[in-house]
Amino acid sequence: MQDQPTPPARRPGRPAARAGQANQRERLLDIALLLCAKHGAAETTIAAVARKAQMTPAAAHYYFKTREQLLDSLLEERFMPVRATFEDVFEAHPDEPFTVIKLLVERLMNINSRYPWFGTFWLREMISEDDMFKQRVHLRMGRQQHMAMLDTVKRWQRDGLINAQIDPMLLFTSLIGLTVFPLSASVKWKDDPMRAHLGPQQISDHAWALLLRGLQP
């Protein structure tokens, strides 16, 4: 009886193919996203992701060869789909500022409910001195779309459609502050008798009421 040929050795770092590993890459991206939101992109290394995932760095490197590849994957597969939900609102309603703002409030509320990392991630990106992720966003997208949205707001002001004293650069920040931040905090208010009634609908109504009055020309 002939000896059976020895199977080729598995390459170092490559995880063995077994049930449950089909979604390992997605799991690593989810972990990396949470680490980015909590500690920033500069502290989100493949070693840190592997440690959180309870796997070896070599196994994690099979999915992402470098931290740059990991961050690029986060940008393309997590951040960009969320950002895209805002851009079409301006395109669909170029001359209807109140419709745009109302839809943005609704979408921000939905996004934060669907992606719990969004509020923490956005806050860190706004106040952090670490520009690693911001630079990748600018390299990937440029500033054209952002500038186009700002130009639309400025045109609304010139046409007398909204309050001329509003700073276009602060409008989106104000939207985040009125929706995403209180919604993120509301999970801790359940045991607070003074705030327990504040849920997504109450936060959305409050944001819209303030914005509606403030946007009036």
| Rg calc | 22 Å
Q: What shape does the CA trace take?
A: globular
CATH top level of the largest domain? Mainly Alpha
Say how many strands there are.
0
The stretches of 5 or more residues where confidence is low (pLDDT under 50) are: 4-19
For the residues shown, what is the average pLDDT? 84
| Structure annotation, total helices | 10
How do the SSEs run, as a string of H and E? HHHHHHHHHH
Distance between the termini: 91 Å
The helix content, as a percent range, equals 55-70%
Strand content: under 5%
Return the domain count.
Answer: 2
Tell me which oligomeric state these chains represent: single chain
CATH topology assignment of the largest domain? Tetracycline Repressor, domain 2
Class from secondary-structure proportions: mainly alpha
How would a crystallographer describe the biggest sheet?
none
- Tell me what the CATH architecture of the largest domain is: Orthogonal Bundle
Describe the structure.
There is one protein chain. The longest helix is centred in the middle third of the chain and has 26 residues. The chain folds into two domains: 51 residues, Orthogonal Bundle (Arc Repressor Mutant, subunit A), CATH 1.10.10; 147 residues, Tetracycline Repressor, domain 2, CATH 1.10.357. It is mostly helical and 217 residues long.
Q: Layout of SSEs?
A:
Blueprint: H1 24-39, H2 46-53, H3 57-63, H4 67-92, H5 97-114, H6 117-127, H7 132-141, H8 144-158, H9 168-185, H10 200-215
Helix pairs in contact: 1-2, 1-6, 2-3, 4-5, 5-9, 5-10, 6-9, 9-10
